[in-house]
């Protein structure tokens, strides 16, 4: 079955990267809305219209399911897309429950884009988990721009993260939840700054497990490299230069996967 992964940019590759490892017998389409990235600092109306256009394109590609590999787009648009289309649609959920189940009574720093942090969805999740006193929320929107420029561990990235993390006493925290798919690229830089006990959690495994259940897919160790067609805002990526760019992100994700 062909499965589409959609993100504002290259963050969704971190979700696809996980899917390629555990669902090697499927075929994938990856759609990065490179014309409109970043989403996280724009209005909800604007993001909804971008997602709507992407879904129009993807549903015309004969795909069996769509993974919204973007927390921001999930927060804004997953519900209206499910109302509009009948194919399985899987969104992202910040791994707050996983963090609190693994490390009860410790606080969690949930990082995401501004839209996600202001959105109702994340606050409903925190209420449902009765976790208000264990959760701190922090928007790290600038990381999206750094990631799109392939700037992962420069002095500027480090300075930005040091400033953003400065207000917290991490002795009381167990982990950082990566609530934006672009943030997976920065685990090594974050690790350098944070105390050694801090863990990193993302929603990628939860999303792919849910996709497999919903679309009845089998986990496996089959072919090493499942085929992927890449699109930037609806344009097929064919140039060797751009394919090499995407390959570079995937190789970085190989490294980040181990942290
Ligand atoms: N990758 C997206 C997410 O998971 C958002 C990045 C953006 O701001 O465009 O939230």
Topology summary:
Elements: E1 2-7, H1 13-22, E2 27-32, H2 44-59, E3 65-68, H3 71-84, E4 89-90, H4 96-102, E5 107-112, H5 114-118, H6 120-128, E6 135-139, H7 142-148, H8 155-165, E7 173-178, H9 187-193, E8 199-202, H10 204-214, E9 228-232, E10 235-236, H11 240-257
Parallel strand pairs: 1-2, 1-3, 2-9, 3-4, 5-6, 5-7, 7-8
Antiparallel strand pairs: 9-10
Helix pairs in contact: 1-10, 2-3
D-glutamic acid binds near residues 7, 37, 70 and 180.
Structure in a nutshell:
It is built from 11 helices and 10 strands. The chain has 259 residues and is an alpha/beta fold.
- Range of helix content: 40-55%
**Structural class by helix and strand composition:** alpha/beta
In the CATH hierarchy, the architecture of the largest domain is 3-Layer(aba) Sandwich
Mean pLDDT: 96
Say which molecules are bound, naming each kind only once. Answer: D-glutamic acid
Number of separate structural domains: 2
Low-confidence stretches: none
Main sheet attributes: strand count, strand direction, barrel closure = 6 strands, mixed
By DSSP (H or I, 4+ residues per run), the number of helices equals 11
- Shape field: globular
- Beta fraction: 15-25%
- The SSE order reads EHEHEHEHEHHEHHEHEHEEH
Classify the fold: give the CATH topology of the largest domain.
Rossmann fold
Radius of gyration: 17 Å
CATH class descriptor of the largest domain? Alpha Beta
Widest beta sheet: strand line-up: 4-3-1-2-9-10
């Amino acid at each position: 079955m062909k499965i589409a992964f959609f993100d504002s940019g290259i963050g969704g590759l971190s979700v696809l990267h996980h899917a390629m490892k555990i669902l090697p017998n499927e075929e994938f389409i990856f759609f990065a809305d490179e014309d409109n990235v970043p989403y996280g600092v724009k209005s909800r109306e604007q993001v909804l219209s971008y997602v709507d256009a992407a879904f129009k394109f993807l549903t015309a590609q004969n795909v069996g399911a769509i993974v919204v590999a973007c927390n921001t787009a999930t927060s804004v648009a997953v519900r209206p897309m499910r109302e509009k289309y009948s194919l399985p649609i899987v969104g992202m959920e910040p791994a707050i429950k996983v963090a609190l189940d693994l490390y009860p009574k410790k606080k969690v720093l949930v990082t995401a884009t501004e839209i996600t942090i202001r959105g109702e969805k994340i606050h409903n999740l925190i209420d449902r988990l009765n976790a208000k006193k264990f959760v701190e929320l922090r928007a790290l929107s600038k990381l999206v721009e750094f990631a799109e420029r392939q700037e992962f561990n420069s002095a500027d990235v480090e300075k930005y993260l040091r400033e953003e993390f400065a207000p917290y006493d991490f002795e009381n925290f167990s982990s950082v939840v990566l609530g934006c798919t672009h943030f997976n690229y920065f685990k090594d830089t974050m690790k350098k700054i944070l105390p050694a006990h801090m863990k990193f959690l993302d929603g990628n495994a939860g999303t792919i497990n849910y996709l497999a259940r919903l679309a009845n897919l089998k986990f496996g160790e089959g072919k090493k490299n499942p085929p992927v067609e890449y699109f930037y805002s609806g344009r097929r990526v064919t140039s060797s230069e751009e394919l090499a760019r995407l390959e570079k992100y995937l190789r970085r994700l190989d490294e980040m996967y181990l942290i």
